[in-house]
């Protein structure tokens, strides 16, 4: 049975949580493989609306093992709060497993995230401020603290002392901030370690054993491919590998690239971005506000799950999209929020960029170049009738069918799933993914 990866095809917030929730029905194991609590997944089901930052979206199904892989940066306080709030709503969290190899977000990471953004001034990345970037910097610098280290004072105390010996100098001398107390950190994080202990387990064995038993495994991506540290709009990216490229997904749970059979890329029917950085198809007109506030009264507007920031809005960008399809080796696209386009007279798709009078059809590496390109649009007729109650491709308005077919051609990838609303049943399965 396949291991399937779900990745974000754009700049995050494509509706991965919603797609994972749908696909999780058949999976035995659902695992997060990258990023940290900078991510935010909104899931609506019969038990209510949930905003998850770390716990995989499979948690709402009984008998699924939900895994937080080694590839994550975990703020223990956020994770424990999330576990408590799920328990409060009667959801069993006993099936949650946390990798002892995952990195821990420490107080200095959050402080450094804030100070660094401030120092960058106008060139700030627009991070979520959760300390994820500085945590991954420490991972690479081999100064990180891992979940396993929280289990014993003998491991943790010297690591915190040595990390703070360095970081307090950086905080005070480079950024003019205030030093962080070693003792406070040691006590608090040992307590977090004690509370997290029941969740710690061997992630690799869980994933591989389920796979060998012939059960489905779903690897749940966070953020989007265009925020990828290597392949995204650098430097306006996140500090981890959200794409499945270069084995980001395999790396984040400790398996090999050949273990992965399918990669599903989630794309919104338009584009959004939070934070700074280039966004060629960004809109500033009435349509942007209309799309942003669609369903706002039901909490469905385009506002960040983690930060509440209004999302920047634009048309679907097929140049960025095709780049993302190739980067991830996508086997299928899941197209979300088609219903948000309901009622628009015309819908645009960017099919090329114009750069200094020349047409280009590839995604430039330099953010300064991307800032200068002008999108070339193809305009398609919209559809009048709502799609929210449609459950099969053939029942979609002909213009909506034509839009989807055009997306497939431009992205060079088939659309297997379409979502037309936040509820589990508001989906059109064009081809079964499992
Ligand atoms: P960081 O990951 O907090 O360092 O933020 C770096 C960039 O990634 C910023 O542009 C953030 O807005 C963006 N980002 C991080 N996580 C998410 C997410 O889950 N959805 C959308 N954007 C995100
Ligand atoms: Mg999100």
Describe what you observe in this structure:
With 434 residues, this protein is α/β, with parallel strands linked by helices. The protein is 31% helix and 21% strand. The chain contains twelve helices and 20 strands. It has helices spanning 16-23, 76-88, 107-120, 132-140, 153-174, 182-196, 203-212, 248-251, 286-292, 318-328, 367-372, 398-411; strands spanning 3-8, 29-32, 41-45, 48-52, 65-68, 73-74, 96-99, 103-104, 200-201, 217-220, 260-268, 271-273, 312-314, 316-317, 332-336, 346-355, 358-360, 374-381, 415-419, 427-429. A ten-stranded mixed sheet has the order 9-7-5-2-10-1-11-15-19-20, sandwiched between helices. Strands 14, 16, 17 and 18 form a four-stranded mixed sheet that branches. The protein has a two-stranded antiparallel sheet with strand order 3-4. Helix 3 (107-120) packs across helix 4 and helix 3 packs parallel to helix 5 (153-174).
Portion of residues within helices: 25-40%
Alpha plus pi helix count: 12
Classify the secondary structure makeup into a structural class: alpha/beta
Strand order of the largest sheet: 9-7-5-2-10-1-11-15-19-20
Return Rg in Å. 21 Å
What distance separates the N and C termini? 9 Å
- Broad shape: globular
What percent of residues are in strands? 15-25%
Oligomer: single chain
pLDDT averaged residue by residue: 95
Which stretches are poorly predicted, pLDDT < 50 over at least 5 residues?
Answer: none
Bound molecules: inosinic acid, magnesium ion
Q: Count the strands?
A: 20
Sketch the major β-sheet.
Answer: 10 strands, mixed
């Amino acid at each position: 049975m396949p291991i399937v990866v779900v990745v974000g095809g754009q700049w995050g917030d494509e509706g991965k949580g919603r797609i994972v929730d749908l696909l999780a029905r058949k999976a035995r194991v659902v695992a997060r493989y990258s990023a940290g609590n900078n991510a935010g997944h909104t899931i609506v089901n019969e038990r209510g609306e949930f905003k998850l930052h770390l716990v995989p979206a499979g948690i709402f199904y009984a008998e699924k093992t939900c895994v937080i892989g080694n590839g994550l940066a975990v703020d223990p306080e956020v994770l424990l709060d999330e576990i408590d709030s799920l328990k409060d709503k009667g959801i069993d969290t006993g099936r949650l497993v946390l990798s002892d190899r995952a990195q821990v977000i420490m107080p200095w990471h959050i402080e450094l995230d804030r100070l660094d953004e401030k120092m960058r001034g106008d060139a700030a990345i627009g991070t979520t401020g959760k300390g994820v970037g500085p945590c991954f910097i420490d991972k690479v610098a081999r100064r990180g603290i891992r979940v396993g280290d929280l289990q014993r004072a003998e491991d943790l105390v010297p690591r915190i002392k040595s990390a703070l010996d360095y970081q307090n100098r950086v905080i005070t001398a480079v950024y003019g901030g205030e030093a962080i107390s070693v003792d406070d950190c040691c006590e608090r994080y040992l307590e977090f370690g004690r509370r997290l202990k029941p969740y710690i387990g061997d992630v690799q064995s869980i994933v591989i054993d389920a796979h060998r038993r012939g059960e489905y495994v779903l690897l749940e991506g966070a953020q989007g491919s265009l925020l990828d540290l290597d392949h995204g709009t650098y430097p306006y990216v996140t500090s981890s590998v959200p794409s499945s490229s270069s084995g980001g997904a395999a790396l984040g749970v400790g398996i090999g690239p050949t273990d992965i059979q399918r990669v599903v890329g989630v794309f919104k029917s338009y584009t959004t971005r939070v934070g700074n950085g280039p966004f060629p198809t960004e809109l500033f007109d009435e349509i942007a506000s209309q799309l942003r506030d669609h369903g706002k009264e039901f909490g469905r507007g385009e506002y960040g799950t983690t930060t509440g920031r209004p999302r920047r809005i634009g048309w679907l960008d097929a140049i960025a999209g095709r780049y993302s399809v190739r980067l991830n080796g996508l086997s299928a696209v899941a197209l979300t929020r088609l219903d948000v386009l309901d009622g628009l007279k015309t819908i645009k798709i960017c099919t090329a960029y114009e750069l200094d009078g020349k047409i280009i059809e590839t995604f430039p590496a330099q953010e300064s170049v991307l800032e200068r390109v002008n999108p070339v649009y193809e305009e398609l007729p919209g559809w009048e009738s709502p799609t929210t109650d449609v459950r099969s491709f053939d029942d979609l308005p002909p213009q909506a069918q034509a839009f989807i077919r055009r997306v497939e051609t431009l992205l060079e990838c088939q659309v297997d799933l379409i979502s037309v609303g936040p509820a589990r049943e508001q989906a059109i399965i064009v081809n079964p993914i499992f």
